């Protein structure tokens, strides 16, 4: 499997996920306007938070170690038994916590306790989401990109049908409910697809506590949890700050531009996740690692520049099609956001070296430092430039992050 073939299948999967996400945003924009899109971002941040916590944040760890152990049957069996135990235990803890705090979460995130039952549904769904994450991570670790793409495409198609149906019945509440149930559809599609794979064994569904493997996963999951938990938490704080300073309608404009960026960047971040994480994890020679990183920049950096330029040129059309005429004010925010997107992808390709090589302490510290620096820059730049200052903060913070990752990569490769 090479980057071109992996990119083709990841493009199919990403296109399906992108379409599903855009349908949801369009429904919310139609049902509730800019304010509804702002609140949708809060709920999706909570979903991202709990989806990662559902399995203890070990999906990337499973990918890494499956890629390393797939030719060692004994180690692979021990790893997967420990991973399934770890994931389901963590999901039970997170589900119980979300149930107990459902009212507080509904009020804090959505400003309305009427969404309390929705939070409860999300809490109960944690077990299914954890199992779905486990299955997708195992498939990714075996670099079975075609099967992974099939699961994601079919799951996304079913989630779109559900979102449209529930929106007609329950309106905004129905769309949010469909987001939760859509996560479970990946399990419904993924389990039978995985069982038909040539590498599936019944032992992969057994649970067993293994201290050595659990410690490997725990150390690795610290990095994944840090990178997955900080952005939703920081974005929640940023939204609340922007809402206090400019109102929820302005937050909707900021959220709309951010969602457009997330949508088109999915094509690139998915390729990085599917191909480069297991590839870098299983590569140990300096020359091979250098070649992989150069290959990444040769293919992905031009792609993000072209995509960002297209989005900027068509920003008025994109905003009208994806949202509505009420979002015209968001067009002024695209410039610095898209520049930040290019720098973000450039930095991500290097940061995955820390993730793949389990540089736990350095990775966690860097994630915390740059999350806090982004928050600080938002406060400083919005005070000086208004709402667009949040986009300036995004671009400047990733510029600092890119410089940091260049230093880390050079030192690591130089030490080999």
TrEMBL record:
Looking at the UniProt entry, the stretches that span the membrane are 12-32, 44-67, 79-101, 121-142, 149-166, 172-194, 215-238, 258-278, 299-318, 338-355, 362-381, 387-408
A GO term (biological process) for this protein? enterobacterial common antigen biosynthetic process
State the Pfam families in the record.
Polysacc_synt
Subcellular localization is given as: Cell membrane
Family annotation (InterPro entries): Poly_Biosynth_Transport, Polysacc_synth, WzxE
- Name the chain's protein: O-antigen translocase
From which domain of life does this come? Bacteria
Query: What broad class describes the main subcellular location of this protein?
Result: membrane
UniProt keyword list: Cell membrane, Membrane, Transmembrane, Transmembrane helix
How does the record classify its membrane topology? Multi-pass membrane protein
CC terms in the record's Gene Ontology section: plasma membrane
């Amino acid at each position: 499997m090479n980057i071109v073939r992996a990119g083709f299948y990841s493009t199919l999967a990403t296109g399906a996920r992108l379409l599903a996400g855009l349908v949801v945003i369009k429904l919310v924009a139609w049902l509730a306007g800019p304010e509804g899109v702002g609140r949708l971002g809060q709920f999706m941040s909570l979903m991202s938070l709990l989806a990662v916590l559902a399995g203890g944040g070990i999906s990337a760890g499973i990918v890494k170690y499956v890629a390393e152990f797939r030719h060692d049957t004994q180690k692979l069996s021990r790893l997967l038994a420990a991973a399934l135990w770890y994931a389901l235990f963590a999901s039970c803890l997170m589900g119980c916590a979300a149930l107990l705090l459902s009212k507080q979460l509904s009020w804090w995130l959505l400003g309305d306790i009427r969404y309390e039952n929705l939070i409860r549904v999300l809490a109960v769904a944690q077990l299914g989401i954890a199992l779905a994450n486990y299955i997708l991570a195992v498939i990714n670790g075996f670099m079975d990109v075609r099967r992974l793409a099939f699961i994601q495409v079919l799951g996304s198609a079913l989630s779109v049908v559900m979102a449209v149906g529930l929106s007609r019945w329950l309106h905004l509440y129905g769309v949010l409910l469909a987001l939760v149930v859509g996560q479970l559809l990946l399990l419904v599609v993924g389990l039978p697809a995985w069982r038909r794979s040539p590498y599936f064994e019944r032992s992969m569904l057994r649970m067993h506590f293994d201290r050595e493997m659990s410690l490997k996963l725990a150390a690795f999951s610290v990095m994944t949890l840090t990178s997955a938990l900080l952005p939703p938490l920081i974005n929640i704080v940023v939204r609340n700050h922007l809402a206090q300073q400019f109102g929820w309608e302005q937050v909707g404009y900021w959220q709309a531009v951010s969602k457009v960026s997330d949508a088109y960047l999915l094509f690139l971040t998915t390729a990085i996740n599917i191909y480069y994480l297991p590839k870098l994890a299983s590569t140990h020679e300096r020359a091979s690692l250098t070649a992989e990183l150069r290959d990444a920049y040769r293919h992905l950096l031009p792609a993000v520049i072209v995509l960002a330029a297209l989005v900027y040129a068509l920003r008025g059309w994109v905003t009208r099609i994806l949202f509505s005429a009420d979002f015209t004010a968001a067009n002024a925010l695209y410039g610095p956001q898209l520049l930040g997107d290019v720098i973000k992808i450039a930095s991500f390709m290097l940061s995955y070296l820390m993730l793949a090589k389990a540089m736990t302490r350095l990775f966690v510290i860097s994630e915390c430092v740059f999350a806090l620096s982004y928050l600080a820059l938002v406060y400083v730049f919005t005070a000086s430039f208004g709402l667009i200052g949040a986009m300036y903060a995004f671009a400047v913070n990733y510029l600092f992050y890119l410089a940091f990752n260049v230093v880390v990569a050079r030192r690591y490769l130089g030490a080999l």
